[in-house]
Amino acid sequence: MDFAATKALFHLPKGVIYLDGNSLGPLPKAAAARIARAVGDEWGEMLITGWNMAGWMAQPRALGDRIGRLVGAPPGYTVIGDTLSVKVYQALAAALALRPGRKVILSDTGNFPSDLYMAEGLIEGFGRGHVLKTVDPEEVATQIGEDVAVLMLTEVDYRTGRMHDMARLTARAHAAGALTVWDLAHSAGAIPVDLTGAKADFAVGCTYKYLNAGPGAPAFIYVAPEHADTVRPALSGWLGHDAPFAFEPHYRPGTGIERMRVGTPPVLQMAALEAALDIWDGVDMSALRARSIELTELFIAEVDAACPSLTLNSPRDPALRGSQVALRHPEAYAVMQALIARGVIGDFRAPDNLRFGFTPLYIGAAEVRRAVRILADILDNRLWDVTAYKTRATVT
Amino acid sequence: MDFAATKALFHLPKGVIYLDGNSLGPLPKAAAARIARAVGDEWGEMLITGWNMAGWMAQPRALGDRIGRLVGAPPGYTVIGDTLSVKVYQALAAALALRPGRKVILSDTGNFPSDLYMAEGLIEGFGRGHVLKTVDPEEVATQIGEDVAVLMLTEVDYRTGRMHDMARLTARAHAAGALTVWDLAHSAGAIPVDLTGAKADFAVGCTYKYLNAGPGAPAFIYVAPEHADTVRPALSGWLGHDAPFAFEPHYRPGTGIERMRVGTPPVLQMAALEAALDIWDGVDMSALRARSIELTELFIAEVDAACPSLTLNSPRDPALRGSQVALRHPEAYAVMQALIARGVIGDFRAPDNLRFGFTPLYIGAAEVRRAVRILADILDNRLWDVTAYKTRATVT
């Protein structure tokens, strides 16, 4: 892998070291022209005929398959659309319906809150004595009892980067008669994922983090081949119907993954996703993983040496860590503001985490070293101790 | 209203008479630059800080209020996001939860199929003996019994343009103790709507038809002030949480309409919507309605005179008709293909409808007359009777 070549494919603002690609990836240079084409040549010139002529209607499946390759899904079982929260709901509802006698959704405290919130909303509406049980990440394996309908986990913890063993936990879940819903928000494009090998039942993820498809880019959903033709999609919209344009009075699910589509796909966001995936099509995930580990190892070593006031809040063993590193500091919010003011962009995650994402496609060792030098300078000289940095905005 | 001035604000392909703005509105010229700014100056330069600096996070509410003005909603009770099908589900689930003792969702056969499908999916999951009852549009008023929890209707029929009397049916529903969910897909930007005056409980709509926000543009949802702080949103995502970035373990709904937000909003599509609404901000809906009626009346009169083989499938009384006209023909699909080949774009709706939308912002009397001349020529000379026109593509 030539990571200098991939770096040249992104627009990175001058003077910025961007360690927040795990929150929002940067702009692929080709995306601007691709989006402009979707606007001018497609929407502008083709108007309604763009659904066929520009292929808009077929894109959710085609884009889904390109993501599928990155996460070990066979072609035909991944589709994009909606937001990740909506796809979590759909996967969870579908999985619950396949285990009607069981009442427990098992998750962990390291799951992204929106996944837990969606489960709470689902239970409040659908629930017939269902409960959401959240345990510590380390306890998940021992808590998968015969009452568990669905094990719902995010593979890589959004704060700490701690990784679950997808294959092992899925095997445990299956042994107990439960199904699995894996959230790949911090996995897709960050680490090698093998949904097929792990025998995952459902998976969901977003495309605006490591995949670089832009703010508000659509989510994706995977349904394993053995479930794809039997699940009910819960959100049974017309584009998941077997014959959307027949306008039949009753819902009939489409073939396989088609049924997980809901409404009209976001054409402009799909154009950005398409340009982003053009870069990913050439990426070997094991080479990317090797480089990612080099970068996180380097970052941790440099922080250990230069920033004694910080505590590592990620696994020290790289085999247990995704492509991000969290560091704790009592004034993490202010420290991150000071960093951003110096051009090092990471993010703050409550209550006291500085979070940094490492994205080999456009971040190298030089940026890692420079970021730590600036971080050390801010800590050594208490440059974060300024009222302006301590005043929290609504969104970080 | 100066409709020549508004027409100049749109890009309309040369040689095309576009009578399908009720399916996908054309490109506002300013949208291309606005989207390019969102891509280059916002995503490209601001990266993650765009959520605050470019105001992305606040846009769903701001854009919602600008749509709200067009449909008679007070500021603060409309928000954009997701697709229309998802918003139908959310409104319906929220309404059902407010009427726990009642089991009937009443709708009509003129509703858009996806609304009915979403209701079916909701019942299949949430249902505790709930049923979806669909009656003929003319029978709705007499079918609102004491068992009805929610009256769910699309105000303007997507095929025929037949309008329901929102105020009268809402009053009937309330008298029977039921709530209302109004789909404004073919109303917003087409006819004056007064959600407040009609005392509508919930309303949803899309922005890619008459509002011209582009393919896959987000939907909107309105919740009446008396419900906004009590409803449960069903799809309880993190951006509807009272404190999304506190990452609390349990869901707490945000204030009022905020809770109907779910996941990350589509920033590129919002940029297009913003540009589209810049045009609408100057539009007086009663002037637009007067012009719309002139155009549909002219179209029907010309068709009556020139196309004896067509049957009007819309109300002849303009007071009962939205901003579209449907005409029946046994070979409607082939006729529409022939029309499109001649530059007149409308659409086909099964089983035998030619559907034409009339959008005063960029369509005038000259286009209407010319479209009918071409239609008459095609019918008089059986120009539709060509194999290529009869072969149906997947999407029309």
Short structural summary:
The first copy, chain A, is α/β, with parallel strands linked by helices and 396 residues long.
Topology:
The structure is a homodimer of 396-residue chains.
Chain A: H1 3-7, E1 10-11, E2 17-18, E3 27-28, H2 29-46, H3 50-53, H4 59-70, E4 78-80, H5 84-97, E5 104-108, H6 113-126, E6 131-135, E7 148-154, H7 166-175, E8 179-183, H8 195-198, E9 202-206, E10 219-223, H9 225-228, H10 267-280, H11 285-306, E11 311-312, E12 324-328, H12 332-341, E13 344-345, E14 347-349, E15 353-357, H13 365-380, H14 387-390
Parallel strand pairs in A: 2-13, 5-6, 5-7, 7-8, 8-9
Antiparallel strand pairs in A: 1-3, 4-10, 9-10, 11-12, 12-15, 14-15
Describe the structure.
Two copies of one chain form a homodimer. With 396 residues, chain A is of the alpha/beta class. Chain A folds into two domains: 3-29 and 284-390, Alpha-Beta Complex (Aspartate Aminotransferase, domain 1); 55-280, Aspartate Aminotransferase, domain 2 (3-Layer(aba) Sandwich), CATH 3.40.640. Helices cover 38% and strands 15% of the residues of chain A. Chain A has 14 helices and 15 strands. Chain A has helices at residues 3-7, 29-46, 50-53, 59-70, 84-97, 113-126, 166-175, 195-198, 225-228, 267-280, 285-306, 332-341, 365-380, 387-390, and strands at residues 10-11, 17-18, 27-28, 78-80, 104-108, 131-135, 148-154, 179-183, 202-206, 219-223, 311-312, 324-328, 344-345, 347-349, 353-357. Chain A has a seven-stranded mixed β-sheet with strand order 4-10-9-8-7-5-6, with helices on both faces. A four-stranded antiparallel β-sheet of chain A has the order 11-12-15-14. In chain A, helix 2 packs antiparallel against helix 10 (267-280) and helix 4 runs parallel beside helix 10 (267-280). The longest helix of chain A is centred in the C-terminal third of the chain and has 22 residues, at 285-306. Chain A is globular, with a radius of gyration of 21 Å. The relative contact order of chain A is 0.16. At the A-B interface, helix 2, helix 3, helix 5, helix 6 and helix 10 of A face helix 2, helix 3, helix 5, helix 6 and helix 10 of B.
